[in-house]
Design a protein that fits this description.
This protein is α+β, with helices and mostly antiparallel strands. Helix content is about 50%, strand content about 10%. Among the domains are: about 5-160, Glutaredoxin (3-Layer(aba) Sandwich), CATH 3.40.30; about 325-400, no CATH class; about 600-655. Helix 11 (about 260-280) runs antiparallel to helix 12 (about 280-300) and helix 11 packs parallel to helix 17 (about 415-430).
Length: about 650
């Protein structure tokens, strides 16, 4: 057993019994490497990562590999969810070295931590050969390695922002060609990008949904609905138990990479809630309700936090750890469980060559609306739906007896804040008070268990016995969740906490020279380079989230300098936007700057609920807002305020999109 047994991260504990002398990322480990002049191996992953498990089994459990690593290297294991700062720096290095990224992320570094080689999954033979070559080079031609490290370090330092700031006045002319370029990559058969593997990218879809709605762009909206429908129909969404897997390995959203992550499911809850708000499509509502059911059954703690993830792998019927074993189905068990409704399930979920995965295993995939299937079968829709629901309950009960996927029981602050936002969005779309109550309880968990009220410092993760300081991402998403709750509750405490945390973040994270926030922890732990995260990935960049927060807070609190700070951030990022999908949250901010409406009101909660049920992505309701005497509502934009009114229908009319495109 190595010293990782002293850690609390489930991922690090998975490696505690490896024969390798793993150490956690900490100052004394780095000092040891410098003192002994040893190369460093930094291996980064997370508990639900399938290929991390594969490489562990092939390499890190192997005595031959251990003998090489232990003899020559200081070996460090990092949970990317605990240390996103370390992950981001070495991921940037890997992308510069190879043009690719992913996990496991393995880099070999000089004793000072600067990388000289990197890769993702590597088999045993290649891993051993590479390590021996690097050690030989380090002993006999160290100058060559140092020269390469110097050049790579310069690349890391200058990666990202390379252009001077640009005013936003040319925005409209700029965004249209970006969207036209983006549309060329759309998959018009299954939605999403026309490539595999297929990631869901909920922030991309939120932006496209908002843009299409506000500009009445029917083509873009068709693409959004196609994507959301096909994702819900594919094996990517667990129709039995709810919840989405991380991505699909094919073009049809059929075969998922079966791990389930809280950050994916939280963001997709928001997306589908807004889709339901816009369309009242029952499929979207079903996705929302099933996903919440899954999250609360598998991840919700007794004090209203949410765990991080479920593994892709679980023990199969032969007692072997296998990807997807908990989720796939075989024909005999389906026949036995579903009895008379087996043929119906075969039709709806393509239990045939189309739905076949491998080794006589099937993953459900729907290809037609249920209404069409009911018509083809000459069956009442209500009867078909009843039979499906009953059959899915049988499958759920049966599957509950299988060995469950492994749980990562870390509580991650930013992901929990995303979940608060998700519940708030579901409350807006449905009006169901239970969702608002859960949002408030989960926020109370964050502010009492993860936030030090005296120092305003956040904890990044919560596991038994260990705390890691919060990063920019944690602060950004907590502030956003507080503002989301303020909008629907009118509780000024949420606004006050958001303002206090924002002031703290500006003081501790903002770099006036870059005009951006540095991605770091509050303690400013030194790394090999500073990192300014601007690209929106599956999780939007922390800088783009903070820019949204600042822009909104400026209007809520009448502090114009905050909104100007956000505009300045966008002007810094603007000339560096080369591909829209990597900057969709920034483009969403620009859309708000164009179309943003702020409704000042002191109306009762019942009227606010009516307003929130309507899809208006450009609108933020400022409860307790001052309106002219005798009026309940006053709408404003960034330039002026409109005539006050007591008529809620006039408010809703004002939020309707312009019929322009």
């Amino acid at each position: 057993m190595n010293i990782l047994h002293q850690e609390t991260s489930p991922y690090l504990l998975q490696h505690a019994n490896n024969p390798i002398w793993w150490k956690p990322w900490q100052e004394e480990t780095l000092e040891q490497a410098m003192a002994n002049q040893q190369l460093i191996i930094v291996s980064i992953g997370y508990a639900a990562c399938h290929w991390c498990h594969v490489m562990e089994h092939e390499c890190f459990e192997n005595e031959e590999v251990a003998s090489i690593m232990n003899a020559h290297f200081v070996s460090i294991k990092v949970d990317r969810e605990e240390r996103p700062d370390v992950d981001s720096i070495y991921m940037k290095a890997l992308q510069l070295m190879t043009g690719q990224g992913g996990w496991p992320l393995n880099v070999v570094c000089l004793p000072d931590g600067r990388p000289v080689w990197g890769a993702t999954y590597v088999n045993k033979e290649s891993w051993c050969a590479t390590l021996e070559q690097l050690q030989h080079l380090f002993l006999h031609d160290r100058e060559k390695m140092v020269e390469y490290a110097d050049k790579l370090q310069m690349g890391i330092h200058f990666a990202g922002l390379v252009e001077p700031p640009k005013p936003l006045s040319e925005g409209l002319e700029f965004t249209k060609p970006l969207l036209e370029k983006w549309e060329k990559s759309f998959d018009w058969d299954s939605g999403g990008p026309a490539r595999a593997p297929k990631f869901m990218m909920p922030n991309n879809l939120e932006y496209l949904q908002s843009y299409a709605h506000l500009n009445n762009n029917k083509t873009l909206m068709e693409y959004v609905d196609l994507t959301m429908t096909k994702m819900a129909w594919g094996g990517l969404f667990d129709v039995v138990d709810g919840g989405f897997s991380r991505y699909a390995v094919d073009m049809r959203w059929h075969i998922p990479h079966f791990e389930k992550m809280l950050y994916d499911n939280a963001q997709l809850l928001s997306l589908y809630a807004k889709g339901y708000q816009r369309t009242k499509n029952p499929l979207y509502l079903e996705v929302v309700e099933k996903t919440i059911g899954f999250m609360e059954a598998q991840w919700l703690t007794s004090d209203h936090g949410f765990y991080a993830s479920l593994d892709a792998d679980s023990i199969n019927a032969s007692g072997i750890l296998e990807e997807g074993a908990f989720y796939y189905w075989d024909l005999p068990e389906l026949d036995q469980l579903l009895e008379a409704d087996f043929d119906l399930f075969k039709t709806v979920f393509n239990i045939n060559d189309y739905g076949h995965w491998e080794h006589n295993h099937y993953v459900f995939i729907q290809t037609q609306p249920l209404q069409e299937i009911a018509a083809q079968l000459q069956m009442e829709f209500s009867v078909l739906k009843s039979k499906l629901n009953a059959g899915l309950e049988k499958l759920k009960d049966y599957r509950a007896n299988r060995a469950a996927p492994r749980l990562d029981n870390k509580i991650i602050t930013s992901w929990n804040a995303m979940t608060v936002t998700a519940y708030t969005d579901v409350y807006k779309a449905t009006g169901a008070e239970k969702y608002l109550e859960q949002a408030k309880k989960s926020m109370a968990f964050i502010t009492t268990k993860l936030l030090d009220q005296d120092t305003l410092t956040l904890t990044r993760t919560l596991t038994t016995g260990k705390k890691i300081m919060g990063f920019l991402e944690d602060y950004a998403f907590v502030i956003k969740a507080l503002l989301d709750l303020y909008e629907v509750t009118a509780d000024v405490n949420y606004k006050s906490e958001a303002s206090q945390l924002t002031a703290f973040v500006v003081d501790h994270f903002f770099n006036t020279e870059k005009h951006l926030f540095e991605y770091k922890d509050q303690a400013d732990t030194p790394l090999i380079a500073k990192h300014y995260e601007i690209e929106d990935n599956v999780i939007p960049s922390a800088n783009s989230v903070m820019a949204h927060n600042l822009y909104l807070l400026g209007y809520i609190t009448d502090q114009e300098h905050l909104s100007k700070l956000a505009v300045g951030m966008l002007e810094v990022v603007w000339p560096n936007i080369d591909y829209a999908s990597a900057f969709s949250n920034w483009l969403q901010l620009y859309t708000k700057m164009q179309h943003g409406l702020y409704l000042k009101t002191a109306a009762p909660q019942s009227e606010l609920k009516e307003i929130h049920k309507h899809f208006a992505p450009q609108l933020y309701v400022i409860p307790n807002g001052e309106t002219p005497e005798g009026s309940a509502f006053q709408m404003c934009n960034s330039n002026s305020c409109f005539a006050p009114t007591n008529n809620i229908q006039e408010v809703l009319k004002a939020t309707a999109p312009q019929q322009t495109v």
